[in-house]
């Protein structure tokens, strides 16, 4: 019976919109086994009261996509999900579900004698299911990733500096990615695009070699201010943390706030209305057992 452990992720990281991502030390664990003639979906933990228990479940849909990519039909199965990643909070819960489903599908396909689904195909398929590669890349590969698409999805993985730590501030209420994206303008000023290009490049240096540059490197003009109406408390927390010297950003599409700091420096403290979660940056991506 194959099992998989998939990490939470934070994308964008300020200026790296739809490109940069980090794997975080918070994991969902799932396993699947063939169960002819039926489908059972068991879910505990985060989101257990909200997700469907049938073929609409995102992990099941990703499993089905993996089988379809191999020219096979998804058999009956029992899927068990132990969720720790908050849903709808900008910590990559949907990317984790998609990656878990595709990797479980790959293992089941091998057990049933079908051809392999290689890593490049897994990245391509998970990106197609998720819509963009910025969360699925660090979920698959771990560490700090730079992802892009041309004729296919691609990503490179880098090791974050060992002194960098993260604190996630998770609010009680979710914000849908679709709503957060709908607030973004179709066109942005050239000066803002140039500004973000420079800060995104600087962030690669800051996260891998020069963490003292994190505060400057996480400044953004492309998306966070436009999304403020959907998450005013998160925007206010980002501003307050940054004014105190913490490299705080909206995690993904929000509303979670991610604050990066250097080991040994004072950790950012509690914030009213937010669940504070200190997290390591993890080198490993999804792990199959």
From TrEMBL:
<dbReference type="GO" id="GO:0005737">
    <property type="term" value="C:cytoplasm"/>
</dbReference>
<dbReference type="InterPro" id="IPR006203">
    <property type="entry name" value="GHMP_knse_ATP-bd_CS"/>
</dbReference>
<dbReference type="InterPro" id="IPR036554">
    <property type="entry name" value="GHMP_kinase_C_sf"/>
</dbReference>
<dbReference type="InterPro" id="IPR020568">
    <property type="entry name" value="Ribosomal_Su5_D2-typ_SF"/>
</dbReference>
<dbReference type="InterPro" id="IPR000870">
    <property type="entry name" value="Homoserine_kinase"/>
</dbReference>
<keyword id="KW-0028">Amino-acid biosynthesis</keyword>
<dbReference type="Pfam" id="PF00288">
    <property type="entry name" value="GHMP_kinases_N"/>
</dbReference>
<dbReference type="InterPro" id="IPR014721">
    <property type="entry name" value="Ribsml_uS5_D2-typ_fold_subgr"/>
</dbReference>
<keyword id="KW-0963">Cytoplasm</keyword>
<feature type="domain" description="GHMP kinase N-terminal">
    <location>
        <begin position="58"/>
        <end position="143"/>
    </location>
</feature>
<dbReference type="InterPro" id="IPR013750">
    <property type="entry name" value="GHMP_kinase_C_dom"/>
</dbReference>
<keyword id="KW-0067">ATP-binding</keyword>
<comment type="function">
    <text>Catalyzes the ATP-dependent phosphorylation of L-homoserine to L-homoserine phosphate.</text>
</comment>
<keyword id="KW-0547">Nucleotide-binding</keyword>
<protein>
    <recommendedName>
        <fullName>Homoserine kinase</fullName>
        <ecNumber>2.7.1.39</ecNumber>
    </recommendedName>
</protein>
<keyword id="KW-0791">Threonine biosynthesis</keyword>
<dbReference type="GO" id="GO:0004413">
    <property type="term" value="F:homoserine kinase activity"/>
</dbReference>
<keyword id="KW-0808">Transferase</keyword>
<feature type="domain" description="GHMP kinase C-terminal">
    <location>
        <begin position="204"/>
        <end position="261"/>
    </location>
</feature>
<keyword id="KW-0418">Kinase</keyword>
<comment type="pathway">
    <text>Amino-acid biosynthesis; L-threonine biosynthesis; L-threonine from L-aspartate: step 4/5.</text>
</comment>
<dbReference type="GO" id="GO:0005524">
    <property type="term" value="F:ATP binding"/>
</dbReference>
<comment type="similarity">
    <text>Belongs to the GHMP kinase family. Homoserine kinase subfamily.</text>
</comment>
<dbReference type="GO" id="GO:0009088">
    <property type="term" value="P:threonine biosynthetic process"/>
</dbReference>
<feature type="binding site">
    <location>
        <begin position="86"/>
        <end position="96"/>
    </location>
    <ligand>
        <name>ATP</name>
    </ligand>
</feature>
<dbReference type="InterPro" id="IPR006204">
    <property type="entry name" value="GHMP_kinase_N_dom"/>
</dbReference>
<dbReference type="Pfam" id="PF08544">
    <property type="entry name" value="GHMP_kinases_C"/>
</dbReference>
């Amino acid at each position: 019976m194959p099992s998989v452990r998939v990490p939470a992720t934070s994308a964008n990281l300020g200026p790296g919109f739809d490109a940069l991502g980090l794997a975080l030390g918070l994991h969902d664990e799932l396993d699947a086994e063939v169960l002819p003639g039926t489908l059972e979906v068991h879910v505990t933990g985060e989101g257990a009261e909200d997700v469907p228990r049938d073929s609409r479940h995102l992990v099941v849909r990703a499993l089905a996509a993996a089988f379809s990519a191999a020219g096979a039909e998804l058999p009956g199965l029992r899927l068990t999900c132990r969720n720790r990643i908050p849903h709808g909070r900008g910590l990559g819960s949907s990317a984790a579900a998609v990656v878990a489903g595709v990797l479980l599908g790959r293992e089941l396909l091998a057990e049933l004698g079908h051809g392999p689904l290689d890593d490049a195909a897994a990245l391509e398929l998970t990106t197609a299911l998720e819509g963009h590669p910025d969360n699925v890349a660090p979920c698959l590969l771990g560490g700090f990733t730079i992802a892009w698409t041309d004729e296919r999805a691609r990503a490179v993985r880098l090791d974050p500096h060992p002194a960098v730590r993260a604190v996630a501030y998770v609010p009680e209420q979710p914000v849908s990615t679709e709503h957060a994206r709908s607030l973004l303008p179709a066109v942005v000023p050239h000066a803002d695009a140039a500004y973000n290009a420079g800060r995104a490049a600087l962030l690669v240096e800051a996260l891998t070699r020069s963490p003292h540059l994190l505060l400057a490197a996480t400044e953004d003009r492309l998306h966070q201010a436009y999304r403020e109406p959907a998450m005013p408390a998160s925007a206010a927390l980002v501003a307050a943390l940054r004014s105190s010297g913490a490299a705080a950003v909206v995690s993904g599409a929000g509303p979670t706030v991610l604050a990066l700091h250097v080991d040994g420096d004072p950790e950012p403290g509690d914030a009213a209305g937010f669940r504070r979660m200190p997290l390591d940056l993890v080198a490993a991506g999804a792990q199959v057992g």
